[in-house]
């Protein structure tokens, strides 16, 4: 079975041939998402996307335009996920690897 991308009513489901039981669902949401560190707003988005992946807690993604990017400090090193690709990390305040892209 080749990799498949399945359209769904509220998002996209992704399956791969390497693990047919590993699923990723990506959904647009009408929720407003606000990310804070203490009293400081790091991001506020009216267009977040939530990613549900087998075995993991939901992950929220926001457009770069909705992030206060000067508050993010790039950190050295990257990781790779066969489903989502290459990932860069960012520290926010004293929180190590608090954000990724």
Question: Could you characterize the architecture of this molecule?
Answer:
The structure is a single chain. The protein has 101 residues and is an all-beta fold. The protein is 0% helix and 63% strand. It is built from no helices and 10 strands. The strands form 3 sheets. A 5-stranded antiparallel beta sheet has the order 1-2-3-6-7, with no helix packed on it. Strands 8-9-10 form a 3-stranded antiparallel beta sheet, with no helix packed on it. The radius of gyration is 15 Å and the shape is globular. It starts with a strand and ends with a strand.
What characteristics describe this protein?
101 residues, mainly beta, 5-stranded antiparallel β-sheet, 3-stranded antiparallel β-sheet
Topology:
Layout: E1 4-8, E2 11-16, E3 19-28, E4 33-37, E5 40-45, E6 49-53, E7 59-61, E8 72-81, E9 85-92, E10 95-100
Antiparallel strand pairs: 1-2, 2-3, 3-6, 4-5, 6-7, 8-9, 9-10
C-alpha Rg, in Å? Answer: 15 Å
Structural class, judged by helices and strands? Answer: mainly beta
Q: Regions with pLDDT < 50 over 5+ consecutive residues?
A: 1-10
Strand order of the largest sheet: 1-2-3-6-7
Cα distance, first to last residue?
30 Å
Broad shape: globular
Helical segment tally? Answer: 0
> Major sheet: size, sense and barrel closure?
5 strands, antiparallel
Helix/strand order, N-terminal first: EEEEEEEEEE
| Portion in beta strands | over 45%
| Count of DSSP strands | 10
Mean pLDDT: 84
Helix amount: under 10%
């Amino acid at each position: 079975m080749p990799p498949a991308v399945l359209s769904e009513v509220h998002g996209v489901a992704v399956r791969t041939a390497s693990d047919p039981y590993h699923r990723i669902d990506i959904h647009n949401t009408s929720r407003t998402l606000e990310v804070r560190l203490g009293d400081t707003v790091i991001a506020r988005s009216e267009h977040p996307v939530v990613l549900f992946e087998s075995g993991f807690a939901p992950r929220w993604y926001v457009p770069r335009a909705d992030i206060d990017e000067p508050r993010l400090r790039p950190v050295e090193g990257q990781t790779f996920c066969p489903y989502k690709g290459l990932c860069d990390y960012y520290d926010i305040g004293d929180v190590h690897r608090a954000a990724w892209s």
